[in-house]
Amino acid sequence: MRHVISLLIENESGALSRVSGLFSARGYNIESLTVAPTEDASMSRMTIVTVGSDEIIEQITKQLNKLVEVVKVVDISEAAHIERELMLIKVRATGKDREEMKRTADIFRARIIDVTDASYVIELTGNQSKLDAFLGAIDSSLILETVRSGICGIGRGDRVLKI
Amino acid sequence: MVLTGAEIVIRSLQEEKAEYVFGYPGGAVLHIYDALFQQENVRHVLVRHEQAAVHAADGYSRSTGKVGVALVTSGPGATNAVTGIATAYCDSIPLVIISGQVPTAAIGQDAFQEVDTVGITRPCVKHNFLVRDARDIASTIKKAFYLARTGRPGPVLVDIPKDVTAAKAEFEYPAEISMRSYNPVVKGHHGQIKKAVQLLLEAKRPMIYTGGGVILADAAEALTKLTRMLGFPITNTLMGLGGYPASDRQYLGMPGMHGTYEANMSMHYCDVLLAVGARFDDRVIGDPNHFASEPRKIIHVDIDPSSISKRVKVDIPIVGDLKEVLEEMIRQLEAGTQRPNAEQLAPWWKQVEEWRSRECMKFKNSDEIIKPQFVVQKLWEVTGGDAFVTSDVGQHQMWASQYYRFDQPRRWLNSGGLGTMGVGLPYAMGAQLANPGRPVACVTGEASIQMNIQELSTCKQFRLPIKICNLNNRYLGMVRQWQQLFHGGRYSESYMDSLPDFSRLAESYGHVGMKIERPGDVEGALREAFARKNDLVFLDFQVDPTENVYPMVQGGKGLTEMILSAEDL
Ligand SMILES: Cc1cc2nc3c(=O)[nH]c(=O)nc-3n(C[C@H](O)[C@H](O)[C@H](O)COP(=O)(O)OP(=O)(O)OC[C@H]3O[C@@H](n4cnc5c(N)ncnc54)[C@H](O)[C@@H]3O)c2cc1C
Ligand SMILES: Cc1ncc(C[n+]2csc(CCOP(=O)(O)OP(=O)(O)O)c2C)c(N)n1
Ligand SMILES: [Mg+2]
C-alpha cells in the first residue's frame, strides 16, 4: 500500500541524511521525499511517499520517531488529506503543436510560464495522477525535459501537524 | 569562567563524573590531551588500538551501568573506533565517544586525517554531533550523556574540530537538558499493564522470556520478585544472563540457537509469553513462521516501540521502562484479589520437568583431553560463581554462557548483537578498572584473542590482574562446526596455523603464562591463577579441537527442531 508520511524535524545539518539513510539501511522504499523549513525556521517539514505492507509502514513510523531529531510523525494517508505536486515541463512548440499544446495545458489548468519561438515551459500543479495524465495527454516526442517536485501533503479539516 | 574548548571538554566530563576515559592521542585531539594532562579527576587509560578503547569503555559500562567514555583522534582514530561503536550500538550500551576532527576551515578539503566521522558513524550510533562552536561544547556533551543513558541506551559520538578545542568560550555546565524532539516513554500504560496481569493470572502454560533490557534497566530485582510471585518458568537470552538467578529452580537456561531444550520447548508451547526487554532475535526464535505456527498470546514490554511487533506480532504491547512496568505489575498483583494458582500450573510444570530431564547440557568428559565445557565448569566452581566473565565470539562464548551460571546481573559481558571477535580482553579491562580487587575472567579462543592481543600491554601498564582462559582448539571453532555440519566437512580456512606460544607471549609482556594440557591440571591451574591476586595470568588450555556446541537449532529452522548432541546428526 502507498502511504504519505509527514514529519517535523529539527532543521539541523545532516537531518535529511538521517532520514534517507534510515530508508536505505532498512530497505524501505522512497517514492518521493520533499523537505523545506516551516514557518518556524528551526523546524523542517518533510513529506515522504512510500510503499509497504502494514507491518513495514508501522516499522517505518516507529523508526522515524526514534530518530533523535524527529519531532513528530504522522501517516496523513490514514485519513482525508490533500496531496499536491508541482511539475515543470519543457516542450517543443512549433507550428501546429503550439496551439495544440496550449489547448491541452488549458484543459489541465496548467500555465505556460516561459515562451520562445520553439518551446514552452508549462507549470502544472496537482496530485500525482493528474500530472501523469497530463504527460499521457501530450505527444511524448515533444517533451524536452520534465522536473517534478515530489509530493507535499496536508490533512483535511482540523487535523493539524504541529508541536 | 572563560576556558578553551579543550578545557570545556574535560570540565564537562568531570561534571558528568566520568572516572575513566579510554583513548589514544593524535593531532586533532592534542589540545584535549593537553587539558587532560593538567587535571587529575578524569583518569585516562591509554589503550594500544582505538577499537579496544571503545570496547573497554563499553566493558566499563556493562559492568557498572554507567556511561563509558572514549576519546580518539580524527581519521584513522575514528575509523578504528567504528567496530567498537557498532558493537555497543547493537547491544544498546550507553557510551560517549569524543573524536577529534580537522579544523573547521579544512573540513571538506580532503585534509590530512580527514574523514566524515559523523557520516561514517551515523548508522551505528544512537545520535551524533559535529560541534562547530566552542560555546556549544558543554551543552552538546550534556546532551550526549543524556541521550546515551536514557530511553533505549546507546553510543553517542561528539566530533570536535581542532580549532574549536583551541577557541575560548564562557563555560557553564547546564544543569538540565530538554529536547522537544526526544521524550522517551518511561511509565507503562496502566490499562495495558492491567490487561497483561489478568492474562498472566489466567495462563495455563505461561513462560517468561527476558533479555538485555532487564540488565540495562537494572530491573533484575523486580524481575526476580515478579517471577517468584507468579511461579512461572523463565528463560534469559544471551544478553539477559544474570537477570534472574541461574541457580534457581524456575530458571530453564538460555533460549535460542544454543539454548536449552526445556527453554526452547517452553517458549514454543506456552499459551502466554511474557517478553521483557528482549527483541525476538533470529538467534532466539529461529524461523518466525515456525514460531508463529503455535498459537500463544504475547505480552511485550520494551522501552523502544520499534522493538515491539517487529519480528513477531504482539497481543499486548507495553512501552515503558522495565523497572517501572515490572514494579507496577507487582503492585497490581499485590493489590488484586486473584492470586497465581500453583495447582493450575502443575501440569505445565510436569511437562517442563520432563523436558528438563533430557539433561541437554550433559557432555562426555574425558580423562585424556581437556573438554572446553569442563574448563568453564571448573571456572565457575573456583570463582564461586562470583566473577565478572567476559568472552569473545565463537564456541567458547557459547560454552561460557552455558556452563557459567550467572546469579547476578552485569557479571556476563559479551557481544551478542554484532558478535565482534576481539571484545573479550578490552571488556575485561573495563570491568577490572570499574571493579578493582574483584575477580575478572576472560573466556576466549586462540583466534579471537589475537584480534586485540596488543592490549596485554595496556593491562601491564595499568596492573589489571585479569585471568585469561584461552580455550585453544587451534580452530575457528564455530566456523569449523558449521563447515562440519552444513558444508560437507570442507574446512575452508578455519584452521589456525602458526599460533604463538601464548604463555610465553604473555610472559614477554610481563605477565604470567601457563599452558595446561591435561584435564587433571585444569582445576589446579585455575586455583593458582586466581590466587595470584595482582597478576594477569594467561591460561592457555589445550582443548579438544573436535568438540561442538550443543544443543543447536540450525539457522532458519524452528525452535523445536533441535540437534541435542552429536548422536542426533
Ligand atoms: C555466536 C553467537 C551465538 C548466539 N546464540 C544465541 C542463543 O543461542 N541464544 C540467545 O539468546 N542469543 C544468542 N546470541 C545473541 C543474539 O545474537 C542477540 O544478541 C540476543 O539474543 C539479543 O538479546 P535480547 O533479545 O535480550 O536483546 P538486546 O539486544 O539485549 O536488546 C534489549 C532490548 O531491551 C530494550 N530495553 C533496553 N533498555 C530498556 C529499559 N530500560 N526498559 C525497557 N526496555 C529496555 C531494548 O529496547 C531492546 O529491545 C548469539 C550471538 C552470537 C554472537
Ligand atoms: C571480527 C569478526 N570476524 C569474523 C567473525 C566470524 N566468526 C565467528 S566465530 C569465529 C571463530 C572464532 O574462533 P575462536 O576465537 O578460536 O573461537 P572458537 O569458536 O574456536 O571457540 C569467526 C571467525 C566474527 N564473529 N567477528
Ligand atoms: Mg578456536
Annotate the secondary structure layout.
The complex is a heterodimer of chains A (163) and B (569).
Chain A: E1 2-10, H1 15-25, E2 32-37, E3 43-51, H2 54-66, E4 70-75, E5 81-92, H3 96-107, E6 111-115, E7 119-126, H4 128-137, E8 143-155
Antiparallel strand pairs in A: 1-3, 1-4, 2-3, 5-7, 5-8, 6-7
Chain B: E1 2-4, H1 5-15, E2 20-23, H2 30-37, E3 43-46, H3 50-64, E4 68-72, H4 76-90, E5 95-101, H5 117-121, E6 127-130, H6 137-149, E7 155-161, H7 162-166, E8 168-170, H8 190-202, E9 206-210, H9 212-216, H10 220-230, E10 234-236, H11 261-269, E11 272-276, H12 282-285, H13 288-292, E12 297-302, E13 316-319, H14 322-335, H15 342-356, H16 372-382, E14 388-391, H17 395-403, E15 412-413, H18 424-434, E16 440-444, H19 455-461, E17 467-472, H20 477-486, H21 502-508, E18 512-516, H22 522-531, E19 537-542, E20 552-553, E21 562-563
Parallel strand pairs in B: 2-3, 2-4, 4-5, 5-7, 6-7, 9-10, 9-11, 11-12, 12-13, 14-15, 14-16, 16-17, 17-19, 18-19
Antiparallel strand pairs in B: 1-8, 20-21
Helix pairs in contact in B: 1-2, 1-6, 3-4, 3-18, 8-14, 10-14, 11-15, 16-17, 16-22
The complex binds flavin-adenine dinucleotide, thiamine diphosphate and magnesium ion (MG).
